Amino acid sequence: MKDLLKQRLNRLAQRNHRELMVISGEQEWCLRTVNALLSCLHEEHGLWLGEGAPDAVPAIQAGKASSWLGRERQFVVFNAWSGFDVDAFGAISGVVKGGGVMFLLAPVLDQWSLLEDPEHRRITVYPENENRVTGRYIQRLAKLLDKSEHCSLIQQNKEPVWQALPSLNIETETRDDSGYCQTPEQALAVEAIKKVVTGHRRRPLVLTADRGRGKSAALGIAAAQLLIHGLSRIVVTGPSLASTEQVFHHAAGCLGSDSFSRGTFSRGKVQWQDKSVQFMAPDEIVGNPVDCDLMLVDEAAALPVPLLESLLRQQSRIVFSSTIHGYEGTGRGFAIRFRKKLDAITPQWRALHIKQAIRWADHDPLEQLIFSSLLLDARPAEDHQVEGATSEQCEWVRFDRDQLMHDEPMVTQVFGLLVLAHYRTRPFDLRHFLDGPNIEVYGLLYQGHLAGTVLAAREGAIDASLQEPVWLGQRRVRGHLIPQSLSNHAGIPEAIRQKGLRILRVAVHPAVHRNGLGADMLNRLAQSARDKGFDYLGTSFGATSGLLSFWQNSGYLPVRTGLQREAASGCYSLMMLQALSKAGSELLAEARSRFYDNLLLQLPESLKVMDTELVRQLFNGAGDYSSAELSERDWQDIASFSHGQRLFESCLPAIRKLLLKGLVCSDRCSNSYSNSHEQALQVLTMKVLQQQSWSSLAQYEGLAGKKQVLARLRSCVGQLETALKH
């Protein structure tokens, strides 16, 4: 066996390819077998995930896999007996360099799905226990490994099966003259990034690549060269500091080798002379626009489009980079959604795609196996297969996941659509979609092809004995976001006893957007859930104006907002409900009342920087909860402020009532509201509800100071007075 492995490694090295070798059988046999094979390798050049590592091989737990991004190892051992962490499996595969091998230790393939997996605890929801989690995902994976042309099998009591390797490619690529870039394509990417700075303003670059193409490295190399040639400040942003570390690693490497000055490198910052490359979180940038020579947005696919749009509008010189196939996010969905914004805001933007792999050759067997097993290359139906689809022509189905897992084309269509519709999708989402015990999957089929899909989770019906500890924050049960939040955050203890269905994803095929399919699916789901005795439908998402409008138009009402913006999205989370039963209606009414009581107190504190358009939308239709009738004395106060010289603070109670009345009826009054009325609502919201400072408001309005802002407020109050008094 060892001689065969040596021959195999020689052939992989000649091709600069990598391979997955599945060692399948009893646990002790798997460990003995892989340890025997490791004697053919340099053990200190390997990495082991999970339990059972020999002393000579560095070992980590699966949760640390992402920290190894950008590093190289001759081999990796993934011990699935310790649990098959699907995210770690995808991440750590990128550590194996060309000519290397990845070993997967697994139970007997046709029995694997029947065994309890430690990873089940991540999928288990109350009141189920771990043995209720199905093995659909592992069953699919085992079948794929058994039939794959891209991995070799070493199975207990069976002859090894060695798959044919791709033909030998004798062509080699050279580095660019600087010595930093690994391929000509990467060198072209570096020059394109630099051109964003040296060329015309407002011509952003969108750089895309599959994993392992040196995209982040290109950002770092270009940043270093730009500092050397005169730039002072480059800001890097992305979904997290960890996801951008390769940018800083390569920037520091380039600057550190410079003959006349060494750069200093700390986590999230490279300082060179008096210049720097520095990380900033997206929400920090959106809330406080930064002045920089260049902004680099790495892994842009993992950020929501509204946030990317804000960055695009703020920065005149900006580069967006994105992984096309990868656990970091899907660049395909990013490209579809973001392209429209680029065309509208910066029509002379440029796209560049890096195809050449750096650490391994094209047609790499391990890469192809990872793509298929994790469905990183999942695609929805072709456009022409669903074009013209209308709700009336589509069949509404609830998928039986036991049957669905045997229909690989439909699994691919469903997951491909879910990936396109959401900015942050991980391989674990596929396992959760197939195995989650409380998950329901629905779809709209048009001539056998998927035009839309809904993913939902059953929640609530929590035992009454847990009502008080959940309400008091002493206990949390897994998998019940909305009922627990309504109990603990909204202060409605009985909420945990009602039965709800939380919508996790709504996805419509891009070819039939704007055809009303999303709203139709929600209507059909509501009818189905009502028939099954659910009390409400709910959803929770990062709030943007567009998303809030969609859910409001579908009959959902806000019941809670998060008090801090998510660092990666820059959005506040928002929870919304639609009542389906009498009990659900009573719950919704109480939750709404408490929501608006809290919202009015939170706006000047936790929600001070919430977008004013979002604030306005939250008050749509909220007359019963957030406004009071204006008395004759209130109208006198309003007139005396708008037409006289009374103090703002003296008239504030009446102005507040007027503003709330304007916000509540803004939908009904939209036809009579002019642009100036809309602006008046915005300015007054910032000052009256969010209590922005006079200086902030002056800066926002482009005014000299408090005196001019006060005059602006008098004008705004006068406009609302005219619009609402009659």
From TrEMBL:
Residues that hold acetyl-CoA according to the record: 506-508
Leader peptide range in chain numbering: none
Keyword set includes Transit peptide: no
InterPro entries in UniProt: Acyl_CoA_acyltransferase, GNAT_dom, P-loop_NTPase, TcmA/NAT10_helicase, TmcA/NAT10/Kre33, TmcA/NAT10_N, TmcA_C_sf, TmcA_tRNA_bind
tRNA(Met) cytidine acetyltransferase TmcA tRNA-binding domain: residues covered: 625-720
Pfam families in the cross-refs: GNAT_acetyltr_2, NAT10_TcmA_helicase, TmcA_N, tRNA_bind_3
Domain of life, per lineage: Bacteria
GO MF terms, alphabetically ordered: acyltransferase activity
Segments forming domain N-acetyltransferase: 414-527, 532-580
Domain TcmA/NAT10 helicase: 206-377
Protein localization: Cytoplasm
EC number, as in UniProt: 2.3.1.193
Chain residues that bind ATP: 186, 359
Substrates-to-products reaction catalysed: cytidine(34) in elongator tRNA(Met) + acetyl-CoA + ATP + H2O = N(4)-acetylcytidine(34) in elongator tRNA(Met) + ADP + phosphate + CoA + H(+)
PANTHER family noted in UniProt: N-ACETYLTRANSFERASE 10 (PTHR10925), RNA CYTIDINE ACETYLTRANSFERASE (PTHR10925:SF5)
Family: Belongs to the TmcA family.
Functional description taken from the UniProt entry: Catalyzes the formation of N(4)-acetylcytidine (ac(4)C) at the wobble position of tRNA(Met), by using acetyl-CoA as an acetyl donor and ATP (or GTP).
Protein name as catalogued: tRNA(Met) cytidine acetyltransferase TmcA
Organism: Endozoicomonas lisbonensis
Gene: tmcA
